[in-house]
Amino acid sequence: MLKMIDVLEQSLVQNFTHSLNSHTSQFDELFNQGILNTADSALQNVVVNFFNRADAIESAQALDISADRIQALQTGVALKDEQYLADTAKIVALCLALETDALAHLEISDGLQDFLI
């Protein structure tokens, strides 16, 4: 099974963890471009794998992705379309955060601890 770190460019994955601590709009642009540069079939595969997880729907809802967009993303067809790119980026970022164990390295306030996956 492919992982998100296998699908995206290595430099993007390496910069991802750093960007969590010093978020910039420039990285958002690079991140979106990295998603757009990814092979459609590979991106589709990892997003479909994400939605095969038992907690995927709840995770997507926690990312503030609406039910109709979740349904569209589950098919894996329009992941790079302009109207779905932001939602795709949320899922890609969550997958990268989980795969790189980046969440363990972030300072998260006690009040938000219950919302972590």
Low-confidence stretches: none
Structural class: mainly alpha
Shape: globular
Give the helix tally. 7
> Can you write the helix and strand succession as a string?
HHHHHHH
Q: Got a strand count?
A: 0
Q: Overall mean pLDDT score?
A: 82
* Oligomer category: single chain
Distance N to C terminus: 21 Å
Largest sheet: none
Over the alpha carbons, how many angstroms does the gyration radius reach? 14 Å
- Proportion of residues in β-strands: under 5%
Set down the secondary structure blueprint.
Layout lengths: L3 H4 L2 H12 L3 H13 L2 H12 L4 H7 L4 H9 L9 H15 L18
Protein architecture, described:
The chain is an all-alpha fold. 62% of the residues lie in helices and 0% in strands. The chain has helices at 4-7, 10-21, 25-37, 40-51, 56-62, 67-75, 85-99.
Main features:
117 residues, mainly alpha, 7 helices, 62% helix
How would you summarize this macromolecular structure in one to three sentences?
This protein has 117 residues and is mostly helical. The chain has helices at 4-7, 10-21, 25-37, 40-51, 56-62, 67-75, 85-99.
